[in-house]
Structures are given as structure tokens and as C-alpha cells.
Amino acid sequence: MTNKFLSRRSFIVGVSVLSMVMLGCLENQMNYELPSAIYKHWIHSREEDAEDVRVYRPSDYKFPPSRGREGFEIKENGEFIQYGIGPTDAPEKIIGTWTIAGENQIIVSLEVPRQNSYTMEVVSCDERLLKVRLGL
User: Fold this and answer.
1) Which of 52, 32, 50, 61 is nearest to 126 (CA)?
2) Which residue, among 85, 77, 94, 95, has the nearest Cα to 43 in the 3D structure?
3) What is the number of other CB atoms lying within 10 angstroms of the CB of residue 110?
4) Which contacts of 91-98 are long-range, i.e. CB under 8 A and separated by 24 or more positions?
5) CA–CA separation, 52 vs 41, rounded Å?
6) Could you tell me if 119 and 108 are in contact, meaning their C-beta atoms sit under 8 angstroms apart?
7) 98 has which bridge partners?
8) How many Cβ atoms sit within 10 Å of the Cβ of residue 108?
9) CA-CA distance, 15 to 85, in Å (whole number)?
10) Quick count: other Cβ atoms within 10 Å of Cβ 31?
11) Which residues lie closer than 8 Å to 63 by C-beta, 6 or more apart?
């Protein structure tokens, strides 16, 4: 009888500790914030890319001539607008949302069936330069 009581008590204590750890992880994830400079319209500056890091500049940046550029806009309200290159080289909007996935990471979900969700890791960000890694 004593062994069953100790086993049951140990199990309950273990579950309680595990619940507190999981709750702590969830609270930490919810406290992550993006840099305030990220909330704007960014355009891909592919000339500056290095390995797996993509470089973006604000939409008012003076880019060299190009036949269309991709970009996106992150809004504080959770809205994400992806700008693709349309058939006439003009930007084509795809609406979606973003959520924080962890420290310096967001998940982008687009409202188009043929587009998968993807993750974006913010490598660095200031008012004039954004560097990210994209994943699936």
C-alpha cells in the first residue's frame, strides 16, 4: 500500500512539475517581440544576399534597375502582405498573417491555397536593413 501511495504521489508531483515547465515555455514564447523597425514595407535587395541570408531594404530605398522585385509588409496587427512579381513585372499582393514562433522567428501563413506557410528568422533588423533566413 505504501509503495502504491508513493508511486502515485511521485507521478502527481512529476506531472505538476512538467506542467509548470510547459507553462513557463509557453509564457516565454508569448513574450517574444519583433524589433519595432520591422513593421514596414520591405523590398528584396537580392544583390546583397549572402548564402542563406536574404537582405531587404525599405520600399523608399534607391534600388538599382531591375525587372521587378519581391517584398513583403509586416503589420503590428498580425497582417502580412507578400508582394510577388506579377506578369507585367508589377507587384502582385498576397494577403496573409504572421505569428511569433519563437525568439526572432515568425510563421507566415498566406491566404492562397497554392502557397505553403513558412518560417522567417530575423537575423538582424534596423530602420534601413533587414536580414532574414526563410524556411519551410
Assistant:
1) 61
2) 85
3) 17
4) 98/74
5) 21
6) yes
7) 108
8) 20
9) 51
10) 9
11) 43, 45, 57, 69
Residue 126, CA distances (Å) to 35, 56, 69, 111 in order: 8, 11, 21, 28
Q: pLDDT digits over 77-136, tens only?
A: 999 999 998 877 677 899 999 999 999 999 999 998 777 899 999 999 999 999 999 986
Among 73, 67, 71, smallest CA distance to 87 is for 67
**Residue 30 is inside which H or E element, if any?**
helix 2-30
Tell me the C-alpha to C-alpha distance, in Å, between residue 65 and each of 45, 47, 50, 68, 121: 11, 11, 20, 9, 28
Kindly give, in sequence order, each residue whose CB lies less than 8 Å from that of residue 100, ignoring residues fewer than 6 positions away: 29, 30, 32, 33, 34, 106
